[in-house]
Amino acid sequence: MIQSIRERALNRELLTGTFINLGSSLTAEMAGAAGFDWLLFDIEHGSGDQEALGPQLQAIGGTPAAPVVRIANNDPPRFKRVLDLGASGIMVPYVSSVEEAEQAVASMRYPPRGIRGVAKLNRASGFGADFEEYF
């Protein structure tokens, strides 16, 4: 069984990665094939945006790299869209209070532990085929 990036980090493995900020699926695929453990897609400051993110995540789907996305702000709908596309994690900018941290955590979790909506037919759950495992 393949361990998730979270499990590997909790096991204190040394994980390597790099920022991807060009919005290019070819650049993402090259970085994924280079053997990085994670790639951070910067849609806050990079030239890539929400629309370019989907093809970039598809491009690294056949590589061992886990996709992490830096979103533009701590806004719950941003979390939903990025997670539904298949991100393994999210980097959240401008978290400067306990309340903001709690909001970010709640945005990543399903009820009753969070506020993330449940959508069965998205890329992250294999368009429904892997929903039970993903959920």
Description:
By secondary structure, the chain is of the alpha/beta class. It is built from six helices and four strands. The chain has helices at 5-10, 25-33, 50-59, 76-85, 98-108, 131-134; strands at 17-20, 38-42, 66-70, 89-91. It has a four-stranded parallel beta sheet with strand order 1-2-3-4, covered by helices on one side. β2 (38-42), α3 and β3 (66-70) form a beta-alpha-beta unit. The longest helix has 11 residues, at 98-108.
What descriptive keywords fit this protein?
135 residues; alpha/beta; 4-stranded parallel beta sheet; 6 helices; globular
End-to-end gap: 18 Å
| Contiguous runs where pLDDT drops below 50 for at least 5 residues | none
Number of contiguous helices? 6
Mean pLDDT: 89
Radius of gyration equals: 15 Å
Largest sheet, strands/sense/barrel = 4 strands, parallel
The count of DSSP E runs of length 2 or more, i.e. the number of strands, is 4
Helix content: 25-40%
Strand content: 5-15%
Task: Give the ordered list of helices and strands.
Answer: HEHEHEHEHH
Shape: globular
Tell me the strand order in the biggest sheet: 1-2-3-4
Structural class, from helix and strand content? alpha/beta
